[in-house]
Amino acid sequence: MPEGPSILILKEKLLPFKGKKVIDANGYAKGFDADMLIGKTLKDIKTWGKHTLLCFPKFTVRVHLMLFGSYYINDRPKKNASLHMQFANGEVNFSISSIKLIEEPLDDLYDWSADIMSRKWDDDKALAKLKAKPKMMICDALLDQKIFSGSGNIIKNESLFRAHLHPESVIGEIPDAKLKDLITEVVKFSGEFLKYRKAGTLIKHLEAYEKDICPRNLIPFHKTDTGKTKRHSYYCEKCQELFD
Q1: I need a surface site. Which of 38, 81, 179, 196 has the fewest CB within 10 A?
Q2: Residue 70, SS3?
Q3: Could you give the CA distance from residue 190 to residue 212 in angstroms, rounded to a whole number?
Q4: pLDDT reading at 143 higher than 90
Q5: What residues are paired with 26 via a beta bridge?
Q6: How far from 19 is each of 13, 36, 45, 160, 207, CA to CA, in Å?
Q7: What is the average per-residue pLDDT within 9-31?
Q8: Mutual orientation of helices 4-14 and 176-199 as an angle, nearest 10°?
Q9: What are phi and psi of 59, to 5 degrees?
């Protein structure tokens, strides 16, 4: 599943179509009539976490790539797209994606301060949201899009490793200073994620995700599904402290 930094890269790739009119559209996404886009101008492109928001006059099209989705710009998938949009200067195709029509103002639906890649991100609000869920494991909180919109399993694992925090730590037992350190690492690593993804070197800079050996202690990482989300965690029991 693409995480917030990758969605910002997608936004950049879509910018040539901003201000352009859709001359043809179709797709098999359930509950969405692509014909309504024909003749409409793409006014803006926004993102919130893992959501790509295509803004047209009077409505927005939300694209979520989900677990297995992908996109093709001036190219096409082997099978029919969830959404195909043709412009005079090229085409965009989203495959295996959730497509949703939004008619409400985006500010009424999205908390921009929860987006880890947004300039409106708010550390204090994130801390308050964490402290409001004292019984939740921190590994689950890092995947909660209402707290860390755009965070996925890579950001979860890397941030926990950098903050020396065990993924099964219970939020209510973690000192505030440690939670603040984690929040700082989430935002810092997310920025690095974007830089390295653009350069095609992200894998070289990962220290924990899908790794076998802890680079600090040179001992094997534990690899197990953690929390209610049951997502893979890679952690070192020697340097990542457990608060339970």
Answers
A1: 38
A2: strand
A3: 22
A4: yes
A5: 84
A6: 14, 17, 10, 41, 41
A7: 97
A8: 40
A9: -160, 165
For 143, the token pair is 């995947």
The tokens of 230 are what?
């049951």
Number of H helices, E strands in the chain: 7, 10
Enter the tokens of residue 160.
């926990």
Q: How far apart are CA 214 and CA 119, in angstroms?
A: 33
pTM beyond 0.90: the answer is: yes
Cβ neighbours of residue 5 closer than 8 Å, sequence gap 6 or more: 117, 150, 190, 191, 193, 194, 197
Task: For the beta carbon of residue 186, count every other beta carbon within 10 angstroms.
Answer: 26
| Continuous segment of H or E residues that includes residue 45 | strand 44-48
Which residues pair with residue 115 across a beta bridge? Answer: 149
Give the pLDDT confidence of 86-129 residue by residue, as tens digits.
999 999 999 999 999 999 999 999 999 999 999 999 999 999 99
Q: Are the C-beta atoms of 221 and 213 separated by less than 8 Å?
A: yes
> Which tokens go with 154?
């890579």
**What whole-number distance in Å separates Cα of residue 197 and Cα of residue 190?**
10
Contact predicate 3/154, CB 8 Å: yes
Give the separation between CA 77 and CA 81, rounded to whole angstroms.
7
Greatest pairwise CA separation for the chain in angstroms:
60
Q: What is the dihedral of CA 147, 152, 155, 161, to 10 degrees?
A: 90
